[in-house]
Amino acid sequence: LAVANLVVPEIEDGACLQLGIGSMPSAIGKMIAESDLKDLGVHTEMYVDAFVDMSMAGRITGARKPFDRGRQTYAFAAGTQKLYDFLNNNPECMAAPVNYVNDIARVSQIDKFTSINGAVDIDLYGQVSSESSGINHISGAGGQQDFVMGAYLSKGGKSFICMSSTVTGKDGTVKSRIVPTLTPGSIATDPRSCVQYIVTEHGMINLKGLSTWERAEAIISIADPQFREQLIQDAQKMGIWRKANR
């Protein structure tokens, strides 16, 4: 929820939303439903319960969308019975083919497009892995990169990658989810060239336009404090940390 609190104020009235799969995007969606935002739109690959909450709260009108105005556009839906009851014979909601919904050129035409997705790991270059931990497969690519790039190119668009800074293993060991380089075998879902906002419970950074050294400094600043010194040492070994950063 700390992550959600950081993201919600950055969303503007009239923004068009995409939420990825996972607990963090869903938590942010529920907070949006409880906010005072208005005239939001929906253009998302997956339609989830949070959109129902936003709709019932009167946050979504789609009035400012350049196309499919007044419609909530999605490719598929999955959630509770509440979601299916809401979608059933609802003229406000429009299911469309993936090659329509996920088309980057189409997404980028929507002003203030806001993409909210999760991640498994992020490295100091800004590469995002959302599909695997090393060779251990967790998920598919889905449309995450499509919407990350679409938001990046949108006028006033914002793309958020949201995650907790650490994960606790089954043996109780706490590990940083911000790593020097992606674990060997990990799939880079989003290349560093199109990643914009990264958010953890320790803050939010915008990587757009930053150099490699500036990226490393910014990313380390939102890592869990207990891992920052080691990450600095790793960055120094990688040649992407300057003494001036301190």
What does this molecule look like?
The protein is of the alpha/beta class. Helices cover 30% and strands 22% of the residues. It has helices at residues 2-7, 23-33, 49-56, 81-87, 98-101, 104-108, 144-153, 212-221, 225-238, and strands spanning 16-19, 41-47, 72-77, 93-95, 113-117, 121-123, 128-129, 132-133, 136-137, 158-162, 166-168, 174-176, 178-179, 197-200, 203-206. It has an 8-stranded mixed sheet with strand order 4-3-2-1-5-10-14-15, with helices on both faces. Strands 7-6-13 form a 3-stranded mixed sheet, with no helix packed on it. Strand 6 and strand 7 (128-129) form a beta hairpin. The radius of gyration is 18 Å and the shape is globular.
Tell me the overall shape.
Answer: globular
Number of strands: 15
**End-to-end separation:** 30 Å
Could you say which structural class the secondary elements and strand pairing correspond to? alpha/beta
Run of helices and strands: HEHEHEHEHHEEEEEHEEEEEEHH
Helix content: 25-40%
Count of helical regions? 9
Strand content: 15-25%
Query: Strands of the largest sheet, in order across it?
Result: 4-3-2-1-5-10-14-15
Residue-averaged pLDDT, rounded? 92
- Indicate the radius of gyration in whole angstroms: 18 Å
Unreliable segments (pLDDT under 50, ≥5 consecutive)?
none
Biggest sheet details: 8 strands, mixed
